Amino acid sequence: MTDYKGIKGFTIPTVSSDPSNPIMGQIWYNSTSGRFLGRADGYGTGTWSSGGNINTARQQTSCAPDGTSTAGLLFGGAPGDVALTESYDGTTWTEVNDLNQGRYEAGGGGTQAAALAFGGYSSPAVDAVTESWNGTSWTEVNDMNVAGRGLGSCGTQVAALAIGGGRLPGETVTAAVEQWNGTSWTEVNDLNTARVYLPGAGTVTAGLAMGGLTTAPGETGATERYNGTSWTEVNDMNTARYGNAGFGIQTDALTMGGEEPTISAKTESFNGTSWTEVNDLASARRASGAGGSSTDGLIAGGSVPAVTAISEEWLKPASGTVTITSS
């Protein structure tokens, strides 16, 4: 291996093939490709851009949490007990088969091809109904143990969490959590802070609850992590809010929008320890459906405060090897 004398006195190694596991900030010259390359971790801050409008404007809707900016699934919503389901291909939303039970403020799990819908409000009562989506149609499966609305949620079609929410009797703001195993729901350990209108992220063994509305004093920035057994309070969001959306994993999540108490466009990123404000939504909104990861996601519908059909796509360059150019 020979050395190439780089800019500002740095010595850049010359190699015939890229390193198998470069570290962040490492730079090299690949003599085979004739390019200067480097490793960048999470370069760029991520930005929101306009997506296609949903066909039916609505709020208090739900989204498959593990979707992407090119593969989203939106279901339910208000006004009314909406049963509509729409699928997104990165450009256009297409109406597909409806939920069996129209509802709003439901929880969701899974992807565009394999999703779960549970709870919510179906006039005249709070709902416990659970439905499974196979990419074509919805099928009713076993109900939740306790009906609830305004639920936080995360997970997959076969392994999901229903977090907090307004539960019966009396739609009480609760700390209750239920876990879905693909067949039935089981009550598991409660949150530390009871709340409603919150998003969740992650999995049934590594979940995250972000913000929401408590009985007192109101909107909260409280964040809790779940390890499959119990919840632990970690650092709060920078801006307390409820009706916010969110997605990602326990150690790399986003939350956006909501009320604080004014309707918000703020987006915050969580690294497993603390929250950082990043680029805002183009349209402040609350009660939207959202799904994705910290690098590729989607938010749709909600109120601004009028009910909206607008969707936005979140993209952040992922970690990896990049070509270094000069001008």
CATH architecture of the largest domain: 6 Propeller
Number of strands: 34
Question: Whole-number average pLDDT?
Answer: 91
- Supply Rg: 21 Å
Please give the largest β-sheet: 5 strands, mixed
- Structurally, the number of domains stands at 2
CATH domain fold name of the largest domain: Neuraminidase
* Low-confidence runs: 1-7
Question: What is the helical fraction, as a range of percent?
Answer: under 10%
Question: In what range is the share of β-strand residues?
Answer: 35-45%
Task: Give an account of the 3D structure.
The chain is an all-beta fold and 327 residues long. The chain has two domains: 38 residues, no CATH class; 269 residues, 6 Propeller (Neuraminidase). Helices cover 0% and strands 42% of the residues. The strands form nine sheets. Strands 1-2-3-4-34 form a five-stranded mixed β-sheet, with no helix packed on it. The two termini are 27 Å apart.
Task: For the structure shown, list the relevant keywords.
2 domains, 327 residues, Neuraminidase, disordered N terminus, five-stranded mixed β-sheet, mainly beta
Summarize the structure.
The chain has 327 residues and is mainly beta. Helices cover 0% and strands 42% of the residues.
List the helices and strands and how they pair.
Layout: E1 3-5, E2 11-15, E3 27-30, E4 35-40, E5 47-50, E6 62-63, E7 72-75, E8 85-88, E9 93-96, E10 107-110, E11 115-118, E12 121-122, E13 125-126, E14 130-133, E15 138-141, E16 148-149, E17 152-155, E18 160-163, E19 166-167, E20 172-173, E21 177-180, E22 185-188, E23 200-202, E24 207-213, E25 219-226, E26 231-234, E27 245-249, E28 252-256, E29 267-270, E30 275-278, E31 289-292, E32 296-300, E33 311-315, E34 320-323
Parallel strand pairs: 2-3
Antiparallel strand pairs: 1-2, 3-4, 4-34, 5-33, 6-7, 7-8, 8-9, 10-11, 11-14, 12-13, 14-15, 16-19, 17-18, 18-21, 19-20, 21-22, 23-24, 24-25, 25-26, 27-28, 28-29, 29-30, 31-32, 32-33
